[in-house]
Amino acid sequence: MRPYLTRGPVYVKPKKNLGQHFLKDLSIARRIAELLSGHGNYRNVLEIGPGTGVLTQFLLPQTAYSIKVVEIDHESVVYLRETVPALENRIIEGDFLNLKPDYFGDEPFAVIGNFPYNISSQIFFRILDIRDQVPEVVCMLQREVAQRIASGPGNKDYGILSVLLQAWYDIHYEFTVEPGVFNPPPKVHSGVITLRRNAVDQLACDERKFKQVVKAGFNQRRKTLRNALKPLGLTEAAADSPFMDKRAEQLSVADFVDLTQLMEKAGPPGGGKGEEG
Hints:
Elements: E1 22-23, H1 26-33, E2 44-48, H2 56-59, E3 66-71, H3 74-83, E4 91-93, E5 103-106, E6 109-114, H4 120-129, E7 136-142, H5 143-150, H6 160-166, E8 169-177, E9 182-183, E10 190-197, H7 207-219, H8 225-228, H9 236-239, H10 253-264
Parallel strand pairs: 2-3, 2-6, 3-4, 6-7
Antiparallel strand pairs: 1-9, 7-10, 8-10
Helix pairs in contact: 7-10
């Protein structure tokens, strides 16, 4: 018997309000665990939403890492305490979206997990907030969201989260997972992706403005950027840019950085007319 997971008396019922779909296929759990690469020389790993410990049992034997788990579902916490003795003092009961990121003090840590579909985007925005502490992410989530995050310019799946994450991480779509390997089976396929921190320490533009430009561009993605960005106030430099005749999905991360620089230059064209509409 594997020493990291024992059979216990507690049964965990998947909860719809928490977006729980428990993975049953051990071979997939093993594949996900093996995607941890140590990129960035971290030694700590945080699993989000371990549920019944199916993925956890393949993380604990990796002695190069110190493993902790964060779980919002009390029933799952009780189950893990009873069935995974190796997790003693390593279970954090709470909401990853609201907890302080001091799981390992100031040390860097990787994030891994089967992310709940209903909050996966929020998890990524939280990771962006602490990106300098998170050199690697390995996760499974709804396939459409995974594809969107990994998509490049010119692809219809390319969007806000694609640009914001790719500014700081190199992202790869690893493999697709069928619905039938979960309890209960979701109505959609899942996808596994990896994110590894790139060499960018600071954007060559104001980060707050960069986010505004990206969000404004994609919020009206069918419009040219000239029209989509009007509410932000077009500077003369931006208004004269070839970027203005393109749509947001046609711009790379580097293009968005360049465009943000143009949007930062003083002076809207025509004495402020660029702020109309």
